[in-house]
Structure formats: structure tokens, C-alpha cells
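Q: Hi! First time doing this. I have a protein sequence and I read that you can turn it into a structure. Is that right? Here it is:
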Amino acid sequence: MKIAVLAICLGLMAQAGVAQAADFKSVAAAPAILYDAPSVRGTKLFVAPRNMPLEVILSYGNWTKVRDSSGDLSWIEASMLGEQRWVVVTAANAKIRASADETASVVFSADKNVLLELQASDASGWIKVRHRDGQSGYVKASEVWGE
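A: Yes, that's right. Below is the predicted 3D structure, encoded as C-alpha cells:
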């Protein structure tokens, strides 16, 4: 009996781990105010720029609790988030390459905190991105946040 209960608990924990995959959205409207509580009466913590990626922690009515790239938690009105995905460069100087290969030619470089539109991602460790000026290429997933 105890073994069966333990097996069920471990199974539920494993399923919860799969369900815990990071869910990212980006700020769709600018400016978007981040608060310390799920209310416009809360303290205003930060004004988030358009396209800033945020990790969704939980939803509560018309509010969403989010984590930013520095790890800070805050609340944002859910209507301020969009489905179009963006990532922020976390490396000092990320090289965006013509293909998902370390030896591919560099299309452009992006400094830390530059926002790039996420076009595609896969398990190879590279993601396809596009700069707002139209240039696109592949960057190592480890050099950006918000995927």
C-alpha cells in the first residue's frame, strides 16, 4: 500500500515537472507598468518597454505574476502581454550567425540587453532571431533570455 501511494506521488511530481516548463510572453503595449501586487493600487516598480520578455509565473484574474531577466518578480495587467515572442541578449556581445553552427559566418552582433524577435527554437541549443532592422540569423540559446 505504501509503495503504491509513493509511486502515485512520484508520478504526479514528474507530471508537475513537465507542466512547469517555462511560459514566456512579451510586453505587447508600451509602456507597461509592473506592480508589487495584482492591483493598480500597488506600488509601481518598473515601466517595461514594448517587447520585453517576461516569464509567466501565475495568472490571477486580470493580472499575471511575472519574472524578468534579472529574476525580479512583479505583477502586470494580463492585457499588456502578447503572444509575439521576444528574447533579450544576456551575453556581452552575442554573435548572430547565418546558420545554427559555431563556424557559420556572423550576420550581426547584438550587445547585452538588445531585444530580438524569436522566430524559431529547437533542441539544438540555437534559436532563430530577427533584429527590428530586419536582419535575422541564429544565436546560441545560452546567450539570450526569454526562450
